[in-house]
Design goal:
The complex is a heterodimer of chains A (554) and B (102). Chain A is an alpha+beta fold. Chain A has helices at residues 6-27, 33-41, 65-78, 101-109, 143-153, 225-239, 250-257, 259-273, 280-291, 303-311, 313-322, 350-363, 386-395, 426-439, 442-445, 504-521, 529-536, 539-545, 547-553; strands at 45-47, 52-57, 62-63, 82-85, 90-93, 127-128, 168-171, 185-192, 195-202, 214-221, 323-325, 331-336, 347-349, 368-370, 376-382, 410-411, 450-453, 467-474, 477-484, 496-497, 502-503. Chain A is globular and about 65 Å long. Chain B has one domain. In chain B, 25% of the residues lie in helices and 28% in strands.
Chain lengths: 554, 102
Amino acid sequence: MYKYSEFDSAFLAERNRQFRAQVERRIDGSLTEDEFKPLRLTNGLYLQLHAYMLRVAIPYGTLNSAQMRQLALLAEKWDKGYGHFTTRQNIQYNWPKLNDVPDMLDALAEVGLHAIQTSGNTIRNVTADHFAGAAADEIADPRPVAELLRQWSTDHPEFQFMPRKFKIAITGSPNDRAVTKAHDIGLRMVERDGEAGFEVIVGGGLGRTPMIGKVINDFLPRADLLPYLEAIVSVWNQIGRRDNKYKARIKITVHEHGVDEIRRLVEARFAEIRPTFKGADQALLAEIEGHFAPPVFRKADLGAFHTAYDADPVFRSWVDTNVTDHKVDDYAIVSISLKAHGKTPGDASAEQMRVMADLAEFYAHDELRISHEQNVILPHVHRSELPVIHAILQKHGLGTANIGLISDIIACPGMDYCALATARSIPIAQEIATRFEDLKLEHDIGELKIKISGCINACGHHHVGHIGILGLDRAGVENYQITLGGDGTETAAVGERAGPGFSADDIVPAIERLVGAYLEQRDSAEETFLQTYRRVGLGPFKAALYPEAQANAA
Amino acid sequence: MPRAFTPKVVTASDLLEGDVIYLTADDRWSRDLAEAEVLTDEADAQLRLLFAEQQPDKLVGAYLADVRPGDNGPEPTHFREEFRRTGPSNYHHGKQEAQANV
């Protein structure tokens, strides 16, 4: 894991000192809200529906146990005892008070965490594959590059007042778990003739105008990464639409100019700035890579694991659902579900955070990850430790065996918290999870990703949900639109709108009818919802969703 | 013809806590919608909003929210204002929690 240098610590301390003074000047009246707002946003502080909200970056989703414990401390000391993990690998505190926030930021700095550039028109927290450094299918750990990007983008003088926010995601695996095609820039590590490089994808995004990113460069040599990214951001910074907030993201720039023209402009800019990168970035990257050396993996007997797996059906179900193969034999990646049926997706109490920190420290090489699917990962676990880890998780409401299943729902905070929301998300997620738990159907249904957003900004990634749900305000009443067939992986696709929306009371039965149609249509238990949808199309699902329309047409 | 003016209250967020607040007839800021001054005249409402906006050291983001008269004072007409005066639906936090502690 990356450890702050003296420079990093001094930078963060100075930045926090500045923000403390800005908060003081806001409270004593020397700064107006209009003056203060951009300052607080670039330090992660929002004003939401009921209170302030502090969004803390978890760079590329990686935490150690000390950092997780500090997140627990913040939750307990300055919030209401919990935190909310988000689809951007951040954590949000929903109830801080303005004059406590400088102390919260200082407490974060003690463990090398911050809230810088988690909002505002800047380059945001760089997200990465949550299995990075552990995945069996990985070419290389993408996190050193992500850390290099974090350092490059933090306070980058050219990129502090851009047309709009800018999000970069990176994966080192061909199986895309980082939704790279729905980011302003997506980076996929590739190899060509033994040389390491990147496929660079540009102009993806969700929100009101969902777009799948386009390949601007199919093989960028590793050493060219920073100048090339700087060229992309620079071109967009210049020609991006500042006249219209809704057309300001790079996806619109790419759409309006065409990827070929953008490529031409980027190449021209790249030719200008490439010579100014004289290798300091590569030296820094090499140093950062040293921080991400893999742990010393150990050998141990697997007897206890096999005994538990054979004897305990609850443990077996959890292993089959929540545990993924590791690149090292006898090791595993554990996904801890923050989606207990009926609970708020992505929320963890301070106690749960401490339990996960302890597990990481004692059993999992002191590493934790936050996934964009709002779960927590122990990336390096020897399989012999799985029974004890499972037993401890179960005691603390963290043992739910539902990763990738219908109740593993992404949900944005929605109108329960968010000032932008047009409808609630959380209660819909809770009801769907509870309903399918009652039906005892979810393991039979298999892989099915439901993603819920409470407004068209699509923080809940509904466009790339196999089933997407979008909450809207229709004449003063919450209304939920369904999209089908979305996909956030390497075969990314934007879901197709199924038809008219449903009321809050009707949305769960509608989802149940959809799932019923899938179970009827699938050609075997192995065919997933998405595969079935791709094979049979919208028709049978639409018929299940709108039986009255079918009856009227008959 | 311009649309008829519907009853409103002045609401905002408290600067320090971020909590939802309402302007009362005696120029206080209350956490309770029931105490809010109901404005039925458009010109009067604009004046009261200006009065609020002149207090940047106390509040953020003042605006006029629609209400309708109820048995215990004004009631929200839109679900967003209902959540603002109550709190989130997934936890008993926010105003509903504060009221339970009274």
